[in-house]
Amino acid sequence: MTNPMREIRLDKVVVNIGVGDAGERLLKAEKVLQMITERKPIRTLAKTTSRDFGIRSGMEIGVKVTLRGEEAEKFVKTALWTRDNRVAKYSFDPEGNFSFGIADYTDFPGMKYDPEIGIFGLDVSVALARPGKRVSKRRVLRRKVPAHHRITRHEGVEFLKSKFSAEVVD
Hints:
Layout: E1 9-18, H1 24-37, E2 42-45, E3 60-67, H2 69-82, E4 86-88, E5 98-102, E6 122-129, H3 153-164, E7 167-169
Parallel strand pairs: 4-7
Antiparallel strand pairs: 1-3, 1-6, 2-3, 5-6
């Protein structure tokens, strides 16, 4: 019998397309993200100013969608399928979360290349959590999650292998 509080689950999935500038490309990226996730994307803002890239602080430079629950699991399965169920070991952070990129949105099933839109790649970030993670996020009586309850890189790899039958390559 296992402790239900030790069970690892998919907390959220953030799908992001960074365009780098506002305008027509941002609108196209928004359309791509809406087609893939069937959710309305939110625009992301630049935090700093960079003259080399022509970016000002507060400028809209990308779009993202956050998925949770069954919807997130379904999306991760299809996203991993586009990558032949392979994720690099360096994609995992010390807390067991992982991220990977997809070079072209047309790799998803049912998506066709549209010359009007062009080619857009996207980033997928997956956050894992155990029950009790809310202790570190809540407003009242906020506490740190103890080290023995945090997810490690190794546990994140094992979760990916068992839950999604994915291969972790070095």
